Amino acid sequence: MGDKIFSALFLIISFVAIIVTMPLVRGDLSYSFPEEMKRGSVIGNIAKDLGLNLGTFSSRKARIDVEGARKRYCDINMNTGDLITSDRIDRESLCGKKPSCVLKIDVVLENPLELHRVSLHVVDVNDNSPRFTENFIEMEIRESAEKGSRFSTGVAHDADIGQNDVQRYILQTNEKFILAVENNKVELALENKLDREKQKEISLLLTAIDGGSPQKSGTVVIHVTVLDANDNVPVFSKILS
């Protein structure tokens, strides 16, 4: 009987000890800030947001634990209580084209031990220009091609998201082609018939423009070679008598 009571007391004491030594997890904090801020830029005053004065914040040895990340992107300025950037934060490297980019960190306080979850929402800035896969596109089109025929140019890609992604295309003004853009497909549409005898080659400039402020753009040169069609009857230069 005595052994059972002793075992039960031991289990209770062990459980209480574990509970006491476990950090108390508090509610989440959340900050939003643009990518590419300079090192040392202020994200927010975490001491104030935790309701602590600087003396208490410092005496409780506030520190950051990074969750699931190899790199430490932020730190705490113990003199001001500010959460600051400690390294360059590039949204595209971290999250690619995902619509939401969130870094998770833990702020740990001692005496008593507390853990505060912090979500850092990295906002996209227009730091990338649209780019075509190639700088130069070669096309060969027969002069017999019908009006309205379409020829794919490929699309431009932008590492940014949303409004900072590619928004529109502009084709250099010319007499033969107009631009057709539908369902993320970009094509040259033949507006007027080609005539190799009058024009063997056509050079066009295609520009992709994003919606950022200021806007960024990328270009590709399209070189069209007009191929001959058997559309002319042979003519003698002289009639022999």
Automatic annotation (TrEMBL):
<keyword id="KW-0472">Membrane</keyword>
<keyword id="KW-1003">Cell membrane</keyword>
<keyword id="KW-0677">Repeat</keyword>
<dbReference type="InterPro" id="IPR015919">
    <property type="entry name" value="Cadherin-like_sf"/>
</dbReference>
<dbReference type="GO" id="GO:0007156">
    <property type="term" value="P:homophilic cell adhesion via plasma membrane adhesion molecules"/>
</dbReference>
<dbReference type="InterPro" id="IPR050174">
    <property type="entry name" value="Protocadherin/Cadherin-CA"/>
</dbReference>
<feature type="domain" description="Cadherin">
    <location>
        <begin position="133"/>
        <end position="236"/>
    </location>
</feature>
<keyword id="KW-0325">Glycoprotein</keyword>
<keyword id="KW-0106">Calcium</keyword>
<keyword id="KW-1133">Transmembrane helix</keyword>
<keyword id="KW-0732">Signal</keyword>
<dbReference type="InterPro" id="IPR013164">
    <property type="entry name" value="Cadherin_N"/>
</dbReference>
<feature type="domain" description="Cadherin">
    <location>
        <begin position="76"/>
        <end position="132"/>
    </location>
</feature>
<dbReference type="Pfam" id="PF08266">
    <property type="entry name" value="Cadherin_2"/>
</dbReference>
<dbReference type="InterPro" id="IPR002126">
    <property type="entry name" value="Cadherin-like_dom"/>
</dbReference>
<keyword id="KW-0130">Cell adhesion</keyword>
<dbReference type="InterPro" id="IPR020894">
    <property type="entry name" value="Cadherin_CS"/>
</dbReference>
<keyword id="KW-0812">Transmembrane</keyword>
<dbReference type="GO" id="GO:0005886">
    <property type="term" value="C:plasma membrane"/>
</dbReference>
<dbReference type="GO" id="GO:0005509">
    <property type="term" value="F:calcium ion binding"/>
</dbReference>
<dbReference type="Pfam" id="PF00028">
    <property type="entry name" value="Cadherin"/>
</dbReference>
<dbReference type="GO" id="GO:0009653">
    <property type="term" value="P:anatomical structure morphogenesis"/>
</dbReference>
<protein>
    <recommendedName>
        <fullName>Cadherin domain-containing protein</fullName>
    </recommendedName>
</protein>
